[in-house]
């Protein structure tokens, strides 16, 4: 883990720790290197602000610490401290001084022989201890194995589960795909056998340097995990057999971690087959979480004493697993080495430079001065200082803790540092304002500074500006003393002064007008920032006001904070929160199934509110002082309050009494009542009469189709019955098995009818099936369920909602794919509005949250066949005018505006959608088998020529700026050479040997890079992490610390000055091509292709867990765009005002990017701007203005 500087907005201290810099960042948080008061080194994992606000993820973070604490410290990083109540919760853990396994293999190559065997023992020992503590890790991978000086440590229990935790329901989203066990991909729970499978995969990586089961897409990974037995190469016995057993496809066929350990230590051989003994903690509850490495004794195989003895032996063997080198040195060591490398005169200057920036508990930037260059350059090269334009700032706040020499300097200068800080600031202001005498020290301030400079300094010197400031202040003070004697003589100048009064007054008025304008601008900018911050605070509790306030902030002043707020207003999912004006935790609440009305019962009164308008609808009394509302008909006309049904329009009780503890489902249009209790279910007419359907058993599920014809009942044993109510007979009864599995403790399968009553959805733990209610025949493929939550169709029938414990998943019925996932903080049932644009759900305390899902349900979609394996590919022509889309090997052109195909298919043998030339006239499409690339004329849709690449799969394509040259990265294993083709002639003109290349991009203009074109005079192309001159193939520039396999995508600004590299660790590196310098690094959760710059190069758009905009000058995130599905390709319009997006589900969107268009879209979304009263309350002191028009 390499240390990088703290980013803007990062804290400098957390509790008792000072932060030195970033060790890494991911989707949920950031890991910092930190130091305590004694200089002790630690790693602190901190949640991102948006993640910390999510109760589900915050709870998971707490469980991560709980899981890590239960595991013996010899095999993981010991937890030192936690703070879950902080605004951004964090975990402090022991610092492991060594690389992760992936970095070690990248640096020193794969393991083999005894080194591989010792690594296998170490990891088996760690897994045995983890499982013995009752913990399942669930994300064992090379990045989570740190090679410390005393052996490997398994870290990051962020997705771990202990025996006391309920099983998760998130399916395959938990873990890393290439190290996930087959059972996880088919929806089963990740238990201890999944960790064993990952153990085998990690060792295979260590032995080969390649991730197991690697494929281009998640679908490809799934296929390989489920069907392919990996080649174990030259791995020797007994490790070879143990790895083969660990990688068995069936979980029951894998050994336990302890059996692996005993086999590696020389015990009984282990082969694939049912394990005889399981770890106590993993199967039967937690074992004592003591340090097994310190536990002595001996015992038989499988006993606690025997396990402890094996852990001792394994821990001893683990100490022999040493990484190449000694790991990243501590901050103090780095600083001392940097200081030692300075010449003597620079060493003398170092305290004066560093103490200006670093205090006991604070850091600050200083202006760069050429005389400080030797010190700054040395410490910046060591990563301790960061240059930011004309200023220099410490990379972190921990140097005063970590470096003893600096602590000594601070102790000696502590009393005088405040005096010097005031002097430095006064000297800076004096120089910036033109060295005016009025800005100089005088009197007591001057005497204090002179006293400090003369007698109290030991290490801290003054720079030239500060010396000149004091010299000038002293001189002015002396002149001031003499000047008092010359007052009389000075009166003569008054005559001259009076003659210039008029001219001076005019200049003063002009100056005052300019100052007033500056003050007005500063006031507006400050108000805009405050309004933007307030909008961000309100997004969860009052999303409508937050959107209106965001637009107002932008209208007041177009500062970066206001633009970010505006973008957030466009992308935010919540659009409204209605709360009962008299909300109390003692009241009961129900949201009607049509999502229009919130029903409240408390103190013998029922109130009903229109959720959209926030206005009361009606109320009724006399329902019972303690009665709770538990059910409502779709329109709210019939309510279950206590043990009676009430007609809310008349205020009278209707129908039969409801048995105590039972719940009702009301169908007033069909006059049907369904009552479910502990002993069974009965459906009968609402106005009396015998039961139409009855079922026995514990709490079965029942529902009636919208047209009233069908009634469905599901029992705990997985039996589903459908009754034809019109005919009075049972249509079918069947046991749901096969793709749907059930756990008895969950209850009956979830069931729901489609709006047209033609389909019944049945959901279990692992799958959802659609049935024909007339005969029970399954309709199409099953859905891979996320865990057995309640089901509901959208009113238009195109989507099926599955509500799990903490999230709602929207499945597209047509292709059985998840279109979107929305976090939920509710135990109530989420409901669709009639237009399918909004999802509403009740919270625990009388609120209803409205979530905009129109980006999913009302987005235009290409009419193409889909498959769930995810082989779709798409590419926009420049400007987004034409779209190429490939699915199931069939590639065709589309008009993205009309969503109409342009002619017939180009080919049925496409490996991807390919790449357009810069002028959009030519499309290069690789074959499925990677043996060739075909060039197509976009206008005529005719094949121009076929380039026989022949060397293996085509991993990357790039056209030169003039479209005359095509570069292709070809060859097995990720690309072995770059082929350069003359497009017009259809012939190869050269090759550039390279390995593992995933991205290519020609530099626009083809100009030399800082004069370093290698003497070729030709094109410059980004090949992985290198800039290569063509045709010679010479590397002319490359960012340090980045290798070819790290780079997944690349893009140049249109002027070719900046290169963006998308890295495998979910970061984007911005590289100044001309200067050969890093501009910054962006952390992008779930980063994937593509990267795109706006036509002016000022904005970068990234795709990952959402589509996000970035300011390339400041490296600041502007905000997200409302795209629910995973983006396949993105393209700015020629003017940069709109971003075209095509998603994996075939949806095509035109998303506003230019701020004025974004503001118009937000206004249309929220319906109005701030009222005058809201403005006065939220933005006091700024004159009211219309923000959304009239």
From TrEMBL:
<keyword id="KW-0808">Transferase</keyword>
<keyword id="KW-0723">Serine/threonine-protein kinase</keyword>
<dbReference type="InterPro" id="IPR008271">
    <property type="entry name" value="Ser/Thr_kinase_AS"/>
</dbReference>
<feature type="region of interest" description="Disordered">
    <location>
        <begin position="517"/>
        <end position="541"/>
    </location>
</feature>
<dbReference type="Pfam" id="PF20703">
    <property type="entry name" value="nSTAND1"/>
</dbReference>
<feature type="compositionally biased region" description="Low complexity">
    <location>
        <begin position="275"/>
        <end position="295"/>
    </location>
</feature>
<dbReference type="Pfam" id="PF00400">
    <property type="entry name" value="WD40"/>
</dbReference>
<dbReference type="InterPro" id="IPR049052">
    <property type="entry name" value="nSTAND1"/>
</dbReference>
<dbReference type="Pfam" id="PF00069">
    <property type="entry name" value="Pkinase"/>
</dbReference>
<dbReference type="InterPro" id="IPR011044">
    <property type="entry name" value="Quino_amine_DH_bsu"/>
</dbReference>
<protein>
    <submittedName>
        <fullName>Serine/threonine protein kinase-like protein</fullName>
    </submittedName>
</protein>
<keyword id="KW-0677">Repeat</keyword>
<dbReference type="InterPro" id="IPR000719">
    <property type="entry name" value="Prot_kinase_dom"/>
</dbReference>
<dbReference type="GO" id="GO:0004674">
    <property type="term" value="F:protein serine/threonine kinase activity"/>
</dbReference>
<dbReference type="InterPro" id="IPR015943">
    <property type="entry name" value="WD40/YVTN_repeat-like_dom_sf"/>
</dbReference>
<feature type="region of interest" description="Disordered">
    <location>
        <begin position="275"/>
        <end position="305"/>
    </location>
</feature>
<keyword id="KW-0853">WD repeat</keyword>
<feature type="repeat" description="WD">
    <location>
        <begin position="1047"/>
        <end position="1081"/>
    </location>
</feature>
<feature type="compositionally biased region" description="Basic and acidic residues">
    <location>
        <begin position="518"/>
        <end position="527"/>
    </location>
</feature>
<dbReference type="InterPro" id="IPR019775">
    <property type="entry name" value="WD40_repeat_CS"/>
</dbReference>
<keyword id="KW-0418">Kinase</keyword>
<dbReference type="GO" id="GO:0005524">
    <property type="term" value="F:ATP binding"/>
</dbReference>
<dbReference type="InterPro" id="IPR001680">
    <property type="entry name" value="WD40_rpt"/>
</dbReference>
<dbReference type="InterPro" id="IPR011009">
    <property type="entry name" value="Kinase-like_dom_sf"/>
</dbReference>
<feature type="domain" description="Protein kinase">
    <location>
        <begin position="17"/>
        <end position="277"/>
    </location>
</feature>
